[in-house]
Amino acid sequence: MEDIRRFDTISEYNAFNNNETRHPLISVVDLSKADPRQGSKMYFGFYIVFLKDVKCGDLVYGRDTYDYQEGTLVFIGPGQVAGVNSNGETYKPKGYALAFHPDLIHGTTLAKRMQEFSFFGYHSNEALHLSERERNLVLDCFSKMEYELDRNIDKHSKKLIVANIELFLDYSIRFYDRQFITRDHVYQGVMEKFENLLHEYLASDKPQTIGLPAVGWCAEQLNLSANYFGDLVKKETGKTAQEYIQTKIIDMAKEKIFDAGKTINQIAYELGFKYPQHFARLFKKRVGHTPLEYRSMN
């Protein structure tokens, strides 16, 4: 792998791929126009989505390598580093990339919604694998953006371009929902591992030494990004990952409360709470009674 190539502007990335810059803040990049190259890591100062058409090297994203095939979408947010490892061999890029700068969407409804598109924070091995019909829909969205970019920029251009980006991202949410369903057997295994991870954590001395189990820590133990893990738990249980963890903590707390030899403060510390009042507040919120009231009732 070479040193990191830095792309802060859309025009820089267009030039790298022999594409014309028709708009300073957005481009639908035809990667087949790029010269043959060897693998390299790249820093992006903007949003970029890759649609791979053929296998041409392994995607390197953070510390992970992922062999992604035809019809795969990979979403990368501003400030992230990705690249291709071609194992020293020259390859010819093929496929498309949608690149758009955050400045393009400032002041639009899309800017307010970007946090909904959590897949920009997924790991590469959590990429979106498209069916042929889904791939055609993506290409149709790209085509509509290109149509606007080929026209002279007028007062309608930004609204229509941003609307098509938003449409594409909304389709991507639907496609990811489909992927969660079609890979349900895989994700059930993840949920089982998550359940065991929480049980082992809460039954050990880790709560006293490390504290409450964090969503990010659990995701890391399961080799998932925090965003993908959170979305998976939400789709499988209807709860956020944080809510699910809190449910398990409260279940454990209920068992401990039956031990009359322990004070409520002791139980709070054993569960990983730094301050007993935080435990009491969470318990009251989730159970409807304070820990002491619950103990007296039972």
Q: Could you characterize the architecture of this molecule?
A:
The chain has 298 residues and is α+β, with helices and mostly antiparallel strands. The chain folds into two domains: 5-182, Sandwich (Jelly Rolls); 185-297, Arc Repressor Mutant, subunit A (Orthogonal Bundle), CATH 1.10.10.60. It is 50% helix and 15% strand. It has 13 helices and ten strands. The chain has a five-stranded mixed β-sheet. It has a five-stranded antiparallel β-sheet with strand order 2-9-4-7-10. Helix 4 (132-150) packs antiparallel against helix 5, helix 8 (215-221) packs across helix 9 and helix 10 crosses helix 12 (276-287). The chain starts with a strand and ends with a helix. Pfam families: HTH_18. This is Transcriptional regulator, AraC family.
List keywords for this structure.
five-stranded antiparallel beta sheet; five-stranded mixed beta sheet; 10 strands; DNA-binding transcription factor activity; Transcriptional regulator, AraC family; 15% strand; HTH_AraC; Tscrpt_reg_AraC-type_HTH; sequence-specific DNA binding; Jelly Rolls
